[in-house]
Amino acid sequence: MAGLERSDIDIATRGAEQFVEFYYRAYDSDDRVESLPKFYRPSSSIVWNGNPIQGNEGVKQLIEGMPRSKHEVQLHDCHPVPNSMPPSLHVVVAGTVTHGKAAQQTHPTSSKAVDEQPRVFHQTFILSPDAEKDEGGHVKYYITTDNMRFVG
After folding, report:
1. What is the pLDDT of residues 19-48, one digit of tens each?
2. What global pTM score does this model have?
3. Angle, CA of 43, 48 and 49, to the nearest 5°
4. Domain range annotation of the chain
5. Quick check: 63 and 33 in contact, CB under 8 A?
6. Rounded to an integer, what distance in angstroms lies between the CA atom of residue 78 and that of residue 112?
7. How far is CA 44 from the centre of its chain?
């Protein structure tokens, strides 16, 4: 198989931009318990801040026990995984997340509660192509692996 071409990287970058937008919108939504697990499969492997979780049901259980959140993505990067066609994607995201009451407010209060203060996070995904395509015939992706870690 030939090496990566510029078009491969452009396609991966556009796919990652859409993924990041949809994923964190779902994560912060009112229906996140139903919508977020759809990004995963039963075989998906997740490590959430050092805690292993298995599959979409594990994600659902995790989210059910968490307070509301608001993510502010500050950067993301994506690279197609060589020798995979359509390519799997390696996506890295960094930003801040606020949990609790402050996540629902436009301007958080100056509360000293840790669960209401923005925390820096770093998240790495491997996205794999799904067997089914979207309505336009484009490749759909699901999360194969997800590693999220609070920084500091």
Report:
1. 999 999 999 999 999 999 999 999 999 999
2. 0.84
3. 155
4. 6-151
5. yes
6. 35
7. 13
